[in-house]
Amino acid sequence: DQTVWVLGAGQLGAMLSHAAYPLGVNVNPVDIDAQTLPQPGKNDIVTAEREQWPETPVTNILAAHQNFANKNFFATIADRFQQKSLLDKLSLATAPWQLVCDETNESQLHQKLGERVLLKRRMGGYDGRGQHWLKQAENSQIPNDWHNNAIAEKAIAFDEEISLIGVRDKNGQCYFYPLTLNLHQNGILTASVSPLERLNKYQPVAEKMLTTLMDAVEYVGVMAMECFRVGDDILINEIAPRVHNSGHWTQAGSNISQFESHIRCVTGLPMIQPSVRNKNFMINLIGCDLDARWLAVEGSELFWYQKEVRPGRKVGHINFSKTGEKNIRTALEQMEPLLPERYQETIAWLTKELL
Ligand code: ATP
Ligand code: MG
Ligand code: MG
User: Fold this and answer.
1) Are 49 and 29 in contact (CB under 8 A)?
2) Is 0.85 exceeded by the ipTM?
């Protein structure tokens, strides 16, 4: 019997397990600091729920496995310098950028990239951590140890942020979910909506971009492409070689969730085009306590990650898959008082996009 081992034991690993159960596939997420070491069989599969990991006894075992899906691609994606270089090489549009090296200074960056420049740590950033804004007007400085450890990007005045969840099977066939519209607040994803009719016209170009990338690296499984829409142009913000928060709505809105798609592909099970129903929206639960009243909201589908609650930490999400304006409005109205006050903006955004 084949087991899928997941490097990392956070919510993504848990949701991969959850999705694999009805397929009869055993998924075993492993904490990278676990004391009990995994013993994957020769024919087992290894996948990862994170793009980067420190060397630990656990990660050494899993990363060395012969069936680690997309093994060589992780190093490229984990380093923003290499990721952006690959996108350039494939002529895939991204925010203009450069490496911050020893000699790089602020005025040179502003000259090349404009008045506002976003520094991003090459490794390890997530949820907007590992970012530093340089504003010419404020004379802000490159932090000392960021030389050689960061890239600099031009500030993009985007109209909105969208993402594409793609799937590539072992035969090289690609499948896509409809584009997702995403709201980020303080650099962290707070809500997603999909599908949206007005985004349909960007679907072909986005699919072509992600196909180019997945084909180039012979990818197998789910890959997420985060984009900026600027007028009619799509720029890639960043790539995630894994199931992605902006695809969580597929748990409620598709017959095959992104998690099931990933499991099907890495194990070589048949993959088919997922179908999508209704209008779907997801609200991330960030730094708030579990509230059973969420379960009383019509149509809510809660995923609680069982993590310690800390400010700014993703601790769960709620999916809705609905038709009819009235039903959508009711759900949003019922949710609003059950969330911290800062979610008023989130609910207002969802109301605007959905109704
Ligand atoms: P994630 O949790 O998605 O992995 P991250 O920490 O890796 O996030 P990015 O996705 O690169 O960081 O950036 C986080 C957010 O910061 C983006 O979703 C976007 O809102 C904003 N941002 C990133 N790059 C730029 C840019 N060049 N110009 C303007 N805003 C940007
Ligand atoms: Mg990221
Ligand atoms: Mg991001």
Assistant:
1) yes
2) yes
